[in-house]
Amino acid sequence: MKQYFRKVFPIRFTFRIGASTYLIAMALVIGALSGAANMLFRSTLEFCKTVIFHNGYHYLGIDKGGLNRLLTPLLPMTGAILLVPLVYRFRSEAGGYGFPSFLEKINIQDGIIRFRTIVLKIIAPSLTIGSGGSAGVEGPIAQIGGGIGSLVGQLFHVSGNRMKLLIAAGAAGGIAATFNAPIAGVMFATEIILLGNFELTSFGAIVVSAGMATAVSRVYYGANPAFLVPQYDIQGIFETPIYLILGLFIGPLAAFYIKAFYWIKDRFETLQMSPYLKPILGAFWVGCIGIFFPQVLSDGYEYIEKAFSGSMVLSVMMVLVFLKILATSLTLGSGGAGGVFAPALFIGAMAGGTFGSIVHQILPEYTSSPGAYAMVGVGAFLAAVTHAPLTGMFLLFEMTGNYKIIVPIMFATTIGTFVAHRLMPESIDTYELARKGINIHAGREATILSSIKIKDVMRRDFMTVRDKVNLKEFIDLVIEGGGGFYYPVVDAKGDMVGVISLQDVRKVLYEEYIKEIVTVGELATEDVLTLTPEDNLATALHHFAEMDIEEIPVVDIENPKKVVGMLRRGDVISVYNKEILRRESE
Fold it and tell me: Does the pLDDT of residue 6 top 60, yes or no?
């Protein structure tokens, strides 16, 4: 019978589900779960904000003014105290600004994110922001969505680039659902998570996830923009160059924010006190600022809308720019949990409003009201801080629903990002990694080398040679078991004065009389290229290729003349290959 049907119907119709179809299906699931996680996160945050911040504000009588305002620090300190048990149990996951380590896990490590990380990223930022800490929900929700993508990837046993893509899709869903901005979610994932490297297939999965997350979120929150703002019109072609000047103003401010943020973070790290008390100390200082300027507390979204409406005073906006930078740095630098997106939106609104107020007073007939510049400042500052211009452009457009600001935001964002990048080559998300010697933009392979320190690979069992030893004695030492091609030459104090290689000795190998006359010190190369234990393998491999040598001495950081190890090119390549195989097997 089968043969009969094959003769009558020679064409066989087969249907197979391809890899792209599986990917889109997983993206739909990730998007739906990210949208649901966003609702859970926002509900948790609102609960914490109501119980700790609003009720505490009323219970302590702070809303009545007077001396009761001096009790304001108790609010963020309460959140910091409640955070202590989480930090004690899950220190690396619960506290601080965790987005740089999230990028490292995606682009360098295996991308495995545990379920408990998702739970912690819901609870910890809710405590910090809900009690008045100056931070945002956007970084945590991106990590929550990314964690969901990772869990789905682990469920279906994906690895490598596919895992990275699913995490990016989840992050896109989280951002899209939070801001009701699907396009901005897509841009966030491609520019910040994937570092601008994506293909058509990956782009489709990210779009599907962002769209699905937005649809789920709109079922509960509706389709309204994140901010309700007045409609503004550009006052003719003469106003356009002013937005270019706004970009020139925003760029240096963004670079200052990044520098100040990590400077304060470093001060807390060097502070000699219990790490569990540092978030409480940071919360205290934020609360002290909140006594006089309560606008800096929590995410400050209501004050962003006031800046958009043009109802804020110039002097107050100018002060709030720097106080919000300080408050955010204190909150996150001390170990409080949260992100930098919402503070960046706040700072951008105040900076744009300040700039707009000044130019409107000077040129009232040729400029829009300060509110228009506050809106443009939001997108421009966010783009400059994150080095993600498309994210800043589309996020502002979708948050406000005002299409007429597209041209101004294009000008201000482009110039602001360019200036900030010239002043600070790394964004606020990658600066921490760059300080660790990790160039996350260099690709996965190069980044793996950047993440491995020389101290973990160098050979500590090596032979040094006294400078007064003659070549005959040196050759005998090598024959007895030197085990290398390059040997550091040291003086009587043990300080390195040069390096001698077997290639150097070969020139006089057959001249017996010379071997007993010439010393190692006379034949050694004095201009020696060295490395330190804290350098990474990417730097070492560059030096190996540049100098075409096989071994490099590793010297002490404090004493460049003291040799502590030898690094071989073959060892670097071997470690790299083993690390690649290990990560692929996982």
Answer: no
Selection from 266, 317, 295, 261 nearest residue 139 by Cα:
261
How far is CA 81 from each of CA 60, 90, 276, 280, 284, rounded to the nearest angstrom?
Answer: 18, 15, 9, 6, 11
Judgement on whether residues 469 and 562 belong to the same structural domain of the protein = yes
Would you list the DSSP string of 231-251? -----SGGGHHHHHHHHHHHH
What are the helix and strand counts (H, E) for the chain? 27, 5
Q: Of 221, 247, 277, at which residue does a domain stop?
A: 221
In a domain, 256, yes or no: yes
**Could you give the number of structural domains in the chain?**
3
Spatial contact of 330 and 267, defined as CB atoms under 8 Å apart: no
Rounded to whole angstroms, the Cα distance separating 357 from 360 reads: 5
User: pTM for the complete prediction?
Assistant: 0.79
Cβ contacts of 287 within 8 Å, gap of 6 or more: 72, 73, 74, 75, 76, 77, 132, 297
In order, the DSSP letters of 546-564 are HHT-SEEEEE-SS-TTSEE
pLDDT one-digit tens code per residue, 144-196: 999 999 999 999 888 777 888 999 999 999 999 998 899 999 999 988 888 76
Q: Read off the tokens for 227.
A: 């901010």
- Gap between the Cα atoms of 240 and 246, Å rounded: 10
- Do residues 370 and 516 both lie within one domain? no
Residues 442 and 456 in one domain: no
User: Are 463 and 484 within 8 A, CB to CB?
Assistant: yes
Mean pLDDT of the chain: 86
Domain hosting residue 363, numbered range: 237-446
What pLDDT does residue 338 have? 92
Q: Judge contact between 398 and 415, C-beta under 8 A.
A: no
Cα distances from 477 to residues 380, 460, 463, 492, 505, in angstroms, run: 66, 18, 9, 18, 13
Any alpha helices (H) in 11-137, and if so which ranges? 19-48, 55-59, 74-89, 91-94, 99-107, 115-130
135 touches 331 (CB < 8 A): yes
Tokens of 544: 């190996």
Distance, first Cα to last Cα, the chain: 48
Local structure of residue 62 (DSSP, 8 states): G
- Name the strand (E) or helix (H) holding 496: strand 496-501
